[in-house]
Predict the structure.
Amino acid sequence: MSGLVQARKWIDERFGWSEIVAFARHKVVPRHRFSYWYFLGGMTLFLFVIQLCTGILLLLYYRPTPNGAYESVQYIMTRVRFGWLVRSIHAWGANLMIGLALTHMFSVFFLRSYRKPRELTWLSGMLLLFLTLGFGFSGYLLPWNTLSLFATKVGTDIAGQTPVAGKWLLVFLRGGEDVTGATLTRFFGFHVAVLPGLATLLIGLHLLLVQRFGISVPPGIEKQWLAQPRERREIPFLPNFLLRELMAWYVALAILGALAALKPWELGVKADLFAPAPPGIRPEWYFLFMFQTLKYIPGKIGFLNGEFVGLTGFVVAFLVWTFLPFIDRQRPGRLQRLITGAGVFAVCYVVGMTVLGYLGGRP
Amino acid sequence: MATEAQGAANKAGRRHFLEAFLGAGIVASLVAFLYPVLRYVLPPAVVELLANTVVAAHVGDLKPNTGKIFAFDNRPALLILTDDGKLHAISAVCTHLGCTVQYRPDLRAVWCACHNGMYTVDGKNISGPPPRPLEEYEVMLKDKEIYVQREGNG
């Protein structure tokens, strides 16, 4: 015991540990009927850590070559002890993390937590969301199966439609004109080095900003609290909020464990560069609404390419969404109602198109 | 007094000069670092030995109303034998988003599973999102082998 006390004293003398703890003890989290939404960011972070750990474990056996990738994942799934579990947790965790990140984003949107002074927190969060989708897209190809091959063909082809830099982007992403083994090497590099580095930096910034500005209170409740200050409720971050957050993490872990154990992730059929696209092909659910939209757009709209029109629409929508805090400038009234309406429409559109994507199979 | 002001002005001039010098140096270094990186990330162009003619199949490989994918210059192409015994060879890379198309005997048409694009057996886009027809190749029979070659290349 005295050893522990000694060690703590040693650290305290050098780093001022008690000061940090005292500072953390002052941190409070507002408590109201929407407080539950505050857990989502932390849960996403927790899943990121799980992805990091399982990803490192997968790296011990995975081989990023067209002749070795599929076989190495097969080896992990069938021969390596608990390999099926590690890979299934990684695959399910990715889906859960993207779902949580999306829900987190929409909760921040509808609680209007992105307003001044938190514009940069929103911006860094949106960048993190795009990085998360990048993780999903690049990781999907790594097992080198038929579905992932065509998802990558379509996805990179769409990126290639970007005006001016499209061709450059396509060659950069694919490592050549076509999706080949060179693409696999690149996606592997993006997935295990570039994206984790960028994401770690951005998560650090995101957390720093959250810490700097504290937790946002929704405008309606803020108004209520200003009118009746006795209504204001807050709980200490340490330990009350943290313990609740840990409970949420446990729930996420339980769901993840159950999914991975009961429905191990499939490996599919090995990619063949000269096989036709299989019927019923579709991307992962988080890209499905865009995929489905592209199905409805005709080849030509006037003199423009249909897919170009669709892509431009999405890019504009994502840009507006990303820079939302600079559009919504606290003036209550019509603009605000318009933004909320647009948010509701976006949720309905994404959900509707995703469902249609699942229902729609062959012609 | 005047000399003092002049001295200050000189100093400011010198400072500006040094700042510009330093700034230009930093920019030049960045360009020198970034240019090779930008060139590096784009792979060197592959010298494609464009085979103008390939053997797609042997006579008798295909039953009527079926199609077969074959490699033509490292890209998939599709050879179709129709009910009336006619051979067609077209590119199998969908002009919409680059998926590989297939022949559907039930529809007697070429179909892309990705976005439900449809073409005729000679590559004309008839429905769905494809914006252009598939490239059509010439088919020749020689010594019981089916040769396919690019149109216009004798």
Notes: The radius of gyration of chain B is 30 Å.
